[in-house]
Amino acid sequence: MGCCNRRCGLIAGAVFGAAVAILGGVLIPVGNKIIQETVEKEAVVEPGTTAYDTWTAVGAKVYRQFWFFDVKNPLEVVQHGSRPVLVERGPYTYRTRYLPKDNITFNPNETASFLIPFGAIFEPSMSVGPEEDEITSLNLALAGAYSLISPELHLALEILIRATNASLFQRRPVKELLWGYRDPMLKETVGLFPDYNDTSDGYYNVYTGKNDISKVGIIDMWRGSRSLRFWNNTYCDMINGTDASSFPPFLKKKEPLYFFSSDICRSVSASYEETRNLKGIEVYRYSLLPSTLASPLDNPDNKCFCSNMKTTRNCTLAGVLDISTCQEG
């Protein structure tokens, strides 16, 4: 009797185990499909979805860091033609893209148009000093004036320079050098990024993912065009991927992430580096490859980005990108 009970128990256990295995084999794919369908539904950029609230609001924190070369012997350079003695100062860090998207409009072709307002907030904890630190650097107005006028007018410019006591070098706070100051010679605002705050880089048109979730966030057009007009080359003028604030779901490690950056006037890609744990959530870390800004000698694809032969020493320097065409000087 005991043997029968044991045998019956084994049979019942085997049957139950088989039933669980079959049920699990059915439920796991069904569960995965439900999860995928939910993600696809909520990842669409349209009012009422989870993604929409996140997409319209401020995204991940974006920082821009700046380094300067402080000229320590400006008088010797001007009076005796000495070689400049330079000391690197930085970083001076600003948080950017902290404002929500503006002028959002949904289009019939399942795209959304919007502006990204620009602004910069100084981050003291990530900087070597306050933005009031003074730097001795090239006089931006003077250098720009010579490049903007014809050689025939250089004499008139030199008379103006003497009349306004302008110098080849100037000492100004980091804040003014970056975001602008009133130049006494030109009577205009001069700076590296004088029009950055309270402006934008133009309208973006991106796919909402309504009919194809793999395209959500992918740029359809920027400034009304599907390609750039900066590099005079089909490859270099391509607009690829998203604006880097978000990417489509279901990423695959072997596939790079493409995104367009208006700051450097080109599209770039990032490759999978490692998997990390962020507050219990598995996340992928991506980084730019060294080949992104490599010299054309090492990466021939970068040849069309080399537009200034003098600055790049005949396109042999890495990490140098002339963006004067798209950043208006």
Could you please describe the fold and organization of this structure?
- It is built from six helices and 14 strands.
- The chain has 329 residues and is of the alpha+beta class.
- The protein has a domain at 49-103 and 116-200.
- The longest helix has 41 residues, at 2-42.
- The termini are far apart.
- Residues 12-31 have low confidence and may be disordered.
- The protein is 24% helix and 25% strand.
Mind sketching the topology for me?
Elements: H1 2-42, H2 50-56, E1 62-71, H3 74-80, E2 86-96, E3 102-106, E4 111-115, E5 120-122, E6 134-138, H4 140-148, H5 154-163, E7 169-173, H6 174-179, E8 181-182, E9 189-190, E10 204-207, E11 219-222, E12 257-261, E13 266-278, E14 281-288
Antiparallel strand pairs: 1-2, 2-5, 3-4, 4-10, 6-7, 8-9, 10-11, 12-13, 13-14
Pfam family, one: CD36
Transmembrane segments: 7-28
GO molecular function, one term: low-density lipoprotein particle receptor activity
